Amino acid sequence: MDLDFTRHYDFLDPLCLVFVAMYARCVPRLWAQTVDTHRREVREAILDTASALVTERGLLSVTMSQIAEETGIGRATLYKYFPDVEAILRAWHERHVSAHLAHLAELRDHDGDAGQRLEAVLLAYARMCYHRERDGTEELGALLHRGEQAASAQQELLELFRDLLAEAAATNDFRDDVAPKELANYCLHALAAASSLPSEAAVRRLVAVTLAALRPPR
Predict the structure, then answer these.
(1) Distances (CA, A) of 104 to 38, 112, 197
(2) 132, CA 20 to 30 Å: which among 14, 30, 103, 214?
(3) What pLDDT was estimated at residue 1?
């Protein structure tokens, strides 16, 4: 029996075209995802390396060459990500601040009554201020934490405190004779003093005093 190969290939060609089209759509997408992941990993490695070098050698002693060498990439590659050391440190600090805000928001949204969550948020923020002085981020923040990014982070922090204080005031266990926004500013400035305290125990005492001031006057 004769086989009609022409008909056979006519049948396969559309399928081949379908597979080729699927391959053309999927492979570039997978490649793009892989490249994006690699770029994110390199960027994170650069930020982590810069942070470690600042802690080890001081803020003004770090160079682009040192960061490239310690990260394990070439200087040309490093300059594709950041134009200078200050840009790297600013990106690192923004990541640092975002992580702190995310942690405080998680504590705010945790299970438990408003008073418990308020105490957890105040203690966490006070500890952040305490460790900021000791891990070198206080000096870095003074240099880099300015402009719109700083104002946005400060506003987000104030709103987080304000909303939680308003919720706590509704329980009658915390004062409602002062606007939550004013109390939020009070907490922010009072707990900033934790940066100069000598120990974690002193930080906890500061939080206890701050909480006492937030309760209704006798």
Answers:
(1) 29, 15, 21
(2) 214
(3) 45
Q: What is the pLDDT of residues 5-58, one digit of tens each?
A: 444 444 445 555 555 555 556 655 665 668 788 889 999 999 999 988 988 888
Q: Which of 83, 90, 98 is nearest to 47 (CA)?
A: 90
Which residues of the chain are in CATH 1.10.10.60 domains?
Answer: 5-81
Yes or no: domain 85-214 corresponds to CATH 1.10.357.10: yes
Fold of 5-81: Arc Repressor Mutant, subunit A (1.10.10)
Tell which residue, 155, 154, 174, 153, has the closest CA to residue 165.
Answer: 174
Q: Are 183 and 214 in contact (CB under 8 A)?
A: yes
- Report the distance separating Cα 212 and Cα 206, nearest Å: 10
Cβ count near 6 (within 10 Å): 8
Query: Smallest Cα–Cα separation from 154: which of 123, 185, 194, 127?
Result: 185
The full length of the chain comes to 218
